[in-house]
Write a structure and sequence with these properties.
The complex is a heterodimer of chains A (172) and B (261). With 172 residues, chain A is mainly alpha-helical. Chain A has nine helices and one strand, in the order ααααβααααα. Chain A folds into two domains: 92 residues, Orthogonal Bundle (Rna Polymerase Sigma Factor, Chain: A), CATH 1.10.1740.10; 76 residues, Arc Repressor Mutant, subunit A, CATH 1.10.10.10. The longest helix of chain A has 32 residues. Chain A is globular. The longest helix of chain B is centred in the N-terminal third of the chain and has 26 residues. Chain B is an alpha+beta fold and 261 residues long. In chain B, strands 1-2-3-4-7-6-5 form a seven-stranded antiparallel beta sheet, with helices on both faces. Classes of the chains: A mainly alpha (172), B alpha+beta (261). Chains A and B meet through α2, α3, α4, β1 and α5 of A and α1, α3, α4, α5 and β5 of B.
Chain lengths: 172, 261
């Protein structure tokens, strides 16, 4: 039991990275991690020993993330501004993120959530298509097509951001 | 060795380590004789590296105690809406106190901003209706901007400006007067070079309370909306959340400044 818990806790940094890439907002991302950890610890039996704790945990996180998205759409709930964006309205940009890394986070948010997940699992977490497919509960071929589109969208957003940055520099 | 034909999707297979080893050298040769595909492959690899570098720093952050201290056996299973759902809602209050506190000091009212959602709902409905128009998108065009602003300001009883969205690539097309829940509302329509349209919706709403930004999504469009200084605002469009947020930020800062005049 303790071994399992230790293995789970050792995954926290990577879970936080995945959640932050999904949601950008730091507090919301850590909430998602905490919800995932609590759900995981209440269902330790569903983790087959020997299996990768990361894949098991990310599957849990994926399901919570999807539940969340679905609830938002169904109930037409309003979503407030993420804190960092809110800060940017009334105060100078915080030093936590450089302009360049902010561009990456914003470009990620511009990718549809299901494609964002596929890209992150493979390109950042290093999963194979088959592993990503099992986390997301979709066919392997779908993983590939989602990644291809996600890459196009990421590239377009980053190009856009670079162009805007250039315009700003020129205007100065 | 392999003689199979390669295509663009192989770029992804190669990049993601999904291409069989025996095909790799043939693929490399294929890239060499297809410079456009090589450039594409290179660009995707660069993007991936940038993505990984940006996210790598998160691994080195110290783990917040609330995560490292998650109990081994929780008292109850996780029930109801997840925590981060509530947190997202609570962020509204945090924003009012922390974010806008200095800006609207002394004018904060507590309560449920019900009318904000109505403003957003009307803004989206009006946007969906008029943005789809080919010839009658606006009632008064941007070529008569002074007249437009004067007319709408008088009609809705609010000193208006047309925020400048050109930094985000959107130019004013014009505007129109609309009915909205027993009071008049103004709509300014903007368009970018690729033809995407967004609109700013303003209603004078004396009974309302200040709120932070909220997002409402429906009918394939979305709106960021906020109430400020007795006015309700919404920026609506079928564009990405980020684009819309950029525009809402521009509108917010420019309108807030104009209100002080």
């Amino acid at each position: 039991m303790d071994d399992k818990k230790r293995a789970i806790l050792a995954e926290i940094p990577r879970l936080r990275r995945y959640a932050r890439a999904l949601l950008h907002d730091r507090e919301a991302a850590d909430d998602l991690v905490q919800d995932s950890l609590e759900r995981a610890l209440s269902r330790l039996d569903s983790w087959r020993s020997g299996g990768s704790p990361q894949r098991w945990l990310l599957t849990i996180m994926h399901n919570l993330f999807i539940d969340h998205k679905r609830r938002m759409v169904r109930h037409r709930e309003v979503r407030p501004l993420s804190q960092d964006v809110a800060d940017s309205i009334v105060s100078p940009p915080t030093q936590f993120e450089s302009v360049v890394s902010r561009e990456v986070f914003e470009a990620l948010q511009a990718i549809a959530p299901e494609r964002r997940e596929a890209l992150l699992l493979v390109a950042v977490e290093g999963f194979t298509y088959a592993e990503a497919a099992s986390v997301l509960g979709i066919p392997t071929g779908t993983v590939m097509s989602r990644i291809a589109r996600a890459r196009e969208e990421l590239r377009a957003s980053l190009d856009d951001a670079a162009r805007r940055r250039t315009i700003r520099v020129v205007e100065k | 060795m392999t003689n199979r034909e390669f295509s663009e999707s192989d770029i992804h297979l190669a990049l993601d380590g999904e291409m069989p080893v025996e095909e790799r050298s043939a693929f490399e040769r294929w890239l060499e004789i297809h410079p456009d595909m090589q450039a594409r492959s290179h660009r995707f690899a660069t993007d991936r590296d940038r993505l990984c570098e940006t996210l790598a720093g998160i691994l080195d952050e110290s783990v917040p105690p609330r995560l490292s201290g998650v109990p081994l056996v929780p008292e109850e299973g996780v029930k109801g809406p997840p925590r981060f759902f509530w947190r997202a809602l609570a962020a509204v209050a945090i924003l009012i106190v922390g974010g806008l506190g200095g800006f609207i000091a002394g004018r904060v009212h507590w309560g449920v901003p019900l009318s904000g959602e109505t403003v957003a709902d009307r803004a989206i409905a009006a946007h969906v209706l008029y943005a789809a128009e080919k010839r009658h998108v606006v009632e008064v065009g941007a070529d008569q901007k002074d007249h437009l602003v004067d007319w709408l300001s008088k009609s809705i009883g609010v000193h208006l400006i047309t925020p400048d969205f050109s930094g985000a690539g959107f130019e004013l097309m014009g505007g129109r007067l609309l009915p909205s829940a027993h009071r008049p509302a103004a709509q300014f329509m903007y368009q970018n070079r690729s033809g995407a349209r967004v609109s700013l919706y303003v209603v004078g709403d004396p009974g309302s309370r200040e709120t932070s930004f909220h997002l409402l999504e429906e009918d394939g469009a979305r709106a960021f909306y906020w109430l400020d200084n007795g006015r309700g605002y919404a920026v609506a469009g079928a564009v990405s959340e980020n684009t819309l947020l950029t525009l809402a930020n521009l509108a917010y800062t420019q309108l807030a400044f104009s209100e002080t005049k």
